[in-house]
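tool_call: predict_structure(chain=1)
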Amino acid sequence: MGMTSKTKKLLDEALQLSRSEREALAGHIFDSLEATDPEAERSWQAEIERRITDLDQGIVKPIPWSEARRMIFEDANDSVRD
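tool_result:
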């Protein structure tokens, strides 16, 4: 699907923005693409609250990002080898 001249002009203008402005713009555009399903939003909110409670109560222990990243890449590499 090609870009219209209007879209191309907007892109050219957006690319002139600072990195932080482009990030903010991209975030807004991405958010506008998400379907708004109130039930899904409620479900995600409940899940987020449950996970925060689990952390606060010590039911689960957080791990540093460096460790989580290592685990993710190990899993991905294992999947490639299978």
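agent: Helices lie at 5-14, 19-33, 38-56, 65-81. Proceeding to next step.
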